[in-house]
């Protein structure tokens, strides 16, 4: 299952007439919580058949990341050929998915922020211009290449970065916020940092938007669980892209349940490229993978 929750995998144990899956079928599921366990029960309409050739680990990294990236880019963003996109945390789960999905549209320029050690991985995944957010001002770096800014900003950061992203938008550009990662600053809660992020939250009124010809959108997949037809339609498109070889989940590492602390630490220290996945028991392959990492 995806360590951040919401997108595990498994086998159907009971028949569910509304979904074309039966006992023993390999499925991916969506749920808000309660998935860090060996057996889970979910509504039938939140299960989706795994495509041919997909591993369980890929399935765990698929639904939440790619649904989120797809709906931000295409449903909100209306991504079209020859446009430009800024993807924050481009080496993470949603970031990796977004970069890949941008490659399904002709001549899209992707700016991706990540630490310098991850830039080769970003380029391999399709990012046009990796930016080291620790060593450079990403706003200046974007404007050096694209003085007018970008057409779409994917914002999982919040705080002052939302404001920066909004001002980076071209006319008719769209900023989509889907997280507040800036609230998390280390292993312990930092109330001062949280307060600062909250104080710096982006705020704008309708009249300002009217004059600037820009849009701000908010996205939270967890509150779309009743939009069955909408989500199912997106999953159908994503499965087709996977089957065509145009997208492929990036699994950083796989950890057994009893090593969840180490898995969380890997994410917290921002060492992962792609998704960190939890499984009930470790395989020899998983253990050797962690030794290499």
Describe the protein:
- With 293 residues, the chain is of the alpha/beta class.
- The protein is 35% helix and 18% strand.
- The chain contains 11 helices and 11 strands.
- The protein has helices at residues 56-60, 63-76, 93-102, 119-125, 138-145, 160-168, 191-199, 206-212, 228-243, 260-268, 284-292; strands spanning 9-11, 26-29, 47-49, 84-87, 109-113, 129-131, 150-155, 169-177, 215-218, 251-256, 275-279.
- A 6-stranded parallel sheet has the order 6-5-4-7-8-9, sandwiched between helices.
- Helix 3 links the parallel strand 4 (84-87) and strand 5.
- Helix 2 (63-76) packs across helix 3 and helix 2 (63-76) packs across helix 9 (228-243).
- The longest helix is centred in the C-terminal third of the chain and has 16 residues, at 228-243.
- The protein is globular and about 55 Å long.
- 40% of the residues are buried.
- Mean pLDDT is 87; it is low at 12-18.
Tags for this model:
about 290 residues; alpha/beta; 3-stranded antiparallel sheet; about 35% helix
In short:
This protein is α/β, with parallel strands linked by helices. The protein is built from eleven helices and eleven strands.
For the record, give the distance between the C-alpha atoms at the N and C termini, rounded to a whole number: 20 Å
Count of helix runs: 11
Strand arrangement in the largest pleated sheet = 6-5-4-7-8-9
* Radius of gyration based on Cα positions: 19 Å
Secondary-structure element pattern, one letter each: EEEHHEHEHEHEHEHHEHEHEH
**Share in helix:** 25-40%
> How much of the sequence is in beta strands?
15-25%
The coarse silhouette is globular
- Give the strand tally: 11
| Main β-sheet description | 6 strands, parallel
Stretches where pLDDT falls below 50 for ≥5 residues?
A: 12-18
Query: Average pLDDT across residues?
Result: 87
What would you call the structural class? alpha/beta
